Structure formats: structure tokens, C-alpha cells
Amino acid sequence: MSSTxxxxxxxxxxxxxxxxxxxxxSSVLYVSGIAIGVSGVYAPFVLIFIGxxxxxxxxxxxxxxxxxxxxxxxxxxxxxxTTKKTSAIAGVLTILSYVATCVISGKSAVEYLNTLLxxxxxxxxxxxxxxxxxLTSVVLVFFAFLVISGxxxxxxxxxxxxxxxxxxxxxFVVLGGIYLLGHSNQFQFNLDFTKELVDAKGLLIVLFLGFxxxxxxxxxxxxxxxxxxxxxxxxxxxTLRNMLIGVIIFNPLVAIIALNLNTVPEITANKxxxxxxEAKIIGGNIFQYILVIDAFLVLCGAxxxxxxxxxGLVNRMSLDEVLPLWFSxxxxxxxxxxxxxxxxxxxxxxxxxxxxxxxxxxxVYAISFLSVMSMFAIGNxxxxxxxxxxxxxxxxxxFLVLIAxxxxxxxxxxxxxxxxxxxxxxxxxxxxxxxxxSIFMARDRVAVILHKFSKxxxxxxxxxxxxxxxxxxxxYIFFIHHPSRLYDALKYIxxxxxxxxxxxxxxKDKDDEINEQTWKExxxxxxxxxxxxxxxxxxxxxxxxxxxxxxxxxxEVAKKFGVMKNRIFIGSIHEHHNFDYDELGGVRIII
Length: 591
Fold this sequence. Notes:
Helices cover 67% and strands 5% of the residues.
């Protein structure tokens, strides 16, 4: 496995928080308007409750990522607990979430800026060009090449944006509080408006829909898990804490200020630029300009987060052969140009295909990222059940994990109820993505079908044979400690991988008499496999390696057999091991 983290300087707490914090803290610019529009004066309470849900998810994420600290987030959690097909669903959902985040954030940034520039369509000959779309493309291209220049350099930009945004939000809250002390407010009107809303729909429905819509305010919380390998040890849990603090403080306070400054209908009408309108009221034109520029920058920071996060995720998925390995070509700066440029082309094409009408991506955005968080909680549960002996540094109670999953699954259902088109738009993007990954993961089966088909058409026989040999040439290694796990390991490899060559390695530890007995049992078992017809298409060999299992042996074996470390499989690591999972370089836990 590529190990960017070991070759390049890792990110500290502030830089890591900035990268993922720009995404989640940019939600302050729009989540209050959304919450108030759906739940009225109950919005601050809804946003506080969402902060509680996020607090629970902090424990969910911490347990998994500290035990399995490699890039991939929900995808990685499921990969080490279930099958590749299941984990691929989480991977595709996360990629969709990043696509939607990138395009919506980029366009919203330019829309905010355009409240000052007031640009009209540009006429170039017979063509009318939207300046918003053109400038959004420029923003996407700029941040794509910034990330290509290196994650450390892009982190410096993210940090500058993040600190500016925090200072602007503090100024907004302070000026808003001062303004409300000396002026009349709209709260009574909004209270009466909310009573009418509750009478029409019912309190529980209002709160449920407000909660579901306002969960957009936690988008970005999953980002830190997708570039954890680039972070210094111990930083991940601090990024979760820092994001939580920002969300639970600013989102409710901004909603309270908004409810006192404007009526609910006014807030709903201006929800896309709510803080810009309020900044003008509490601080005049100058503060409005400051806030608009800040909004532009922090939304651009969310674009940056998307490129950084998707790079770590897609690299991991390609190394695991869920996506083509072609993507994982790394440059000298530790970035992945092929991933970034492909993602850029995808985002720009979607931007122009929708002509700036991002209603479709809004549905994809809400459902995909909430589904990702739900699958992460499910992944936590699966790891607890399927990998009970996995070495852990933090154990989060099962009942709280289930509450977290229930909350975000409820949010998915709520967003579908808010607008039925959301599900249609989501499936329109999700289905083609998942079909592509499914076909790629099953390319050995495809190769077998083509090989059989070519018998009727001899002209294609050589081509299909070369394709079959290319697809099935992969080599895998499984470190075995218990002979009883041999069949399960071979079955996993057969169902999840395309290669046909499997080497079973037993570590010979001179101080362990049980190991010697295990070796004898394995030697007796191996001849029975072909006789019993167990997975006859696999080329399975058994070998013994001197030494005690650990990172050094992983390095030696990877070099000796010429395999990437993520194609080395193990049963698990346990509390008695004197090393951590991340020291093994990305090996996969399969038993």
C-alpha cells in the first residue's frame, strides 16, 4: 500500500481541523435558514439536538478509526468487517457526497461573491455564458491544482481560511448580540408563525422534518476519517472534538440571532445568503462585505476538503481493487494527480450538465452523506460483532452506536419525505457508479465468460486469454495462526478478489510450542484441499517464515513476494500484540 504518511510530513491538530472544519463550519452559512424555514422558533433546539447526535458520532468514529487508522472512513470500517461488495457501497456513497459537496460549495461561494459583483451573463459572439458557472469552474480548477501541489501546502491555505471564518463568526455573534440589546426584535412574530405551522402539521412532524433538513449542518464530520493517514498520531480524535465544539456553539447562536432579526418568511426567502443579509443589518455595508468574502473563502475551503478527502478514499479503494489501480499513481508531493483530475472533470461536467440548477445534487448531497454516516455506525456494530478481539484503544457503548445509526437513518427518510425527488436524483447518480465498481470487482467472472464466449469465435481467443491472465494474475498472502481458519480465508479471497495465487504463511516463533503444532496440522491439511475439490481454481501454497509476526515480517514478506501490503490478509491483531494496526502498512483483516 502506498504510504504517504511515512514519506511526507504529517499534519498537526490545527491543520487537520482546518481541512475538515472548513467543510462542516461552512454549514453555518445556510443551515440556520434551512432549520428555521422548516421548524420556526424550534430551530435552535433542533440544532442543539443535532449537536448531541454529533457528540455521539464522535465516539462512533473514534473507536473505529483509532483501531483501524487508514484512509477510507466508512468504506474502511466495512472493508475490515464485511466484504468488498458491501464496503464498495459506502465508498460510492462517500464519493457522491464529495462530488455534491464540491460542486455545491464551489457554486455557492461564487453566488455569495456575486451578491457584491452583481455579474450578468457574458455575451461571447452568439453564446451567452453564465459568469457564475465560469467562475465556479475556475474555483474548482484552482483548488484541484492546489491539492496536486501537495496536501501540506493545501493545508496552509485551509488553515488561513478556517481562522478567518472563526473570527468572522465570533464577530457576527458579538455584533448580533449588541444589536439585539438596543433594538426591537421579530421573535414574537416568529413565535406566532410557528404556532400556526405546528397547528397545521403537528409538533412532532415539524420537529422531525426540521431535524432531518438540519442534519446538513454536520456534513463534513466524516472528512477527517478519509485522510487520517496524513495526520499525526492522536490528532484524529482532536479534530472530531474541535468540529463538534464549532457546530454546537455557532449553529444555535446564529439561529437565535436570525429569529430575532428577521421574520420566518424573510429568512426562508434569503436562506441561501441569510448571513449576508443579517450582517448588513447588524454591521452595515462594511461588515456585509467582510462576511461575503469570508463566505466565499470558507465555501472554497469546503471545495478543498472535497479534493483532499476524495484523494485518500479513492487511493484506498483503487489499492483494494474496488477501482482501477491506475488512479493510485503518486507524485513527489504525495498527491494523486489522476484521482484529482478525474474528480475535477466529473465535478465540472456535472456543474455544466445541470447548468447551475443544483436541486438534483442537493438531493444526492443530503442522502449520500447521511447514508455514509449511517453506514459508519453500522460498520462499528459489525466490527464489534465480527471482530471482537480486534485491538482497540477506545470502546464506545453499543446502545449509543445504535442510537447514532437510528438518528441518521431517520434523517435519510426525512429528507426523502421533504422532497420525493431527492431519492430519484440520488439513485440517478448512485446506480451507475455502483454498477461500474461492481463490474470492475467482478472482472474475473467477466473474463471467464468472455473466455468461454471466445471458443465460438476463435479470432477473439487470444485477446480474451490475455485479458483473463491479466485479471487473474494477482497474488495474495494470508498469515495464518489457527488451521481452522484456512477454509474461511480461502473462501473470502475467492469471493472478494480476482487473483488466483494465494500463499499461506505461518510464522515460526521459536518461543511458541503451539506454533510448531499448528505448522504440523497445516502441512497435513494442504494435500487434502485439491483431493476434496476445495476451490480448485486457486493456486494455494504453504510456507513458513522465521520470526514473530509483526511489522518487520510484513515488510519482509511484501518485498519477497512482490505484493502490496493491502493484499496481505490477517485474522486480526489483539491486545497482546506490541504493535498497532497502522504499523502493518494497511493489511486487511478478514477473519
